[in-house]
Amino acid sequence: MRIAILGAGAVGRASAAYLLTCGHEAVIWSPSGKSTAGFRGGILTVEGEIAGEFRPLVANSAAEAMAGADLILIALPANGQRMVYDEVAHHAVLGQVVIINAQPVLGGFALAERLRQAGKSNPILAWGTTLLRSRQVGASGVRINTIRKSVDMAALPVDADEAVARCRAAFGDHFDIRPNLLSISLSNINPQAHLALALTNFTRMERAETWGQSENLTSGVARLLERLDGERLALADRLGVSVRSMAEHYSRTYDFPAEPLQAMAVNIRTEGKGQLGPTTEQSRYVLEDAPYGLAPLVNLGRAFGVDMALHQAGLSLLSALYGRDFARENDLVDDVASLVSYIA
């Protein structure tokens, strides 16, 4: 199969190498052109779970990348997806399947609306997180740290069986099918987890200190997480969506029994896998998760009558710390009400 990869950062590069290893044709496009300059006409060097030298095709435009593709993989941070959605809506043709790698909250609905306005109805697959945990290495490399065994995925329309089969044929049998795109939006716990960690360790981020996330998951932070998770679960219940609790997510990640988060925090601090927190305030924990995670959840709560007080407070506090209005920075979902026809 031919797969168009829109985005050439860590995820885009890792995906290209992975697909080439699986025997597929990968063509990668960078909106600015900067991220492909290091390996255009040359070698993409890959280390980690996959190692070797690869030569993915590099496209000059989104249209060129998508031409003849069986799958279109959107592999950019949330704050870069608006322009790519517009490119997909303009250039996608009948039969092409669009995958959103690590869907921003309500991102799939926003893409569906742009396709509808363009008179198109391409099937959309949304992943709850990335299949490949990776980091960029210089101008022409990437390190793949993990190939996840299982990633939540949902389809629009929900009966897009052929699209799901095509995704599995390309990427392997790594996907747990969730009921709908909304379940993916509300299953993601990063907005809540990153809000709690960023707020309670903000000066560490500003001062570029080295700090571990596990050892700073204290009892107080765990209590805050539990309250934030309660709001998320209440919203999911109101919308008729079944999602895992944060405790269940941590149980799957760390292989600990699911307990109240304060009890789990003790185990995570003493036995959990250490991961360093951000060493700059210019972190996706805030710059992506505040406008593209917290803000749409607050708006969903407002639209459906669910109190998201802590989400709103966290969004306001982060906006005050940065001197910005993160509630207004989401350019994917201009108006939740306009997407209610997809959601309700």
What does this structure look like?
The chain is α/β, with parallel strands linked by helices and 344 residues long. It folds into two domains: 182 residues, NAD(P)-binding Rossmann-like Domain (Rossmann fold, 3-Layer(aba) Sandwich); 155 residues, Orthogonal Bundle (N-(1-d-carboxylethyl)-l-norvaline Dehydrogenase, domain 2). It contains 15 helices and twelve strands. It has an eight-stranded mixed β-sheet, sandwiched between helices. Helix 4 links the parallel strand 7 and strand 8. Helix 7 crosses helix 13 and helix 13 runs antiparallel to helix 14. The two termini are 35 Å apart.
Brief overview, please?
44% of the residues lie in helices and 16% in strands.
Q: What attributes characterize this protein structure?
A:
single chain, 344 residues, alpha/beta, Rossmann fold, N-(1-d-carboxylethyl)-l-norvaline Dehydrogenase, domain 2, 2 domains, four-stranded mixed beta sheet, 15 helices, globular
- In the sheet with the most strands, the strands line up as 5-2-1-6-7-8-11-12
Order of helices and strands: EHEEEEHEHEHEEEEHEHHHHHHHHHH
Q: Which residues sit in consecutive blocks of at least 5 with pLDDT less than 50?
A: none
Beta percentage is: 15-25%
Helical residues, percent: 40-55%
The tally of domains stands at 2
Number of strands: 12
Kindly provide the radius of gyration, computed on alpha-carbon positions and rounded to a whole number of angstroms.
20 Å
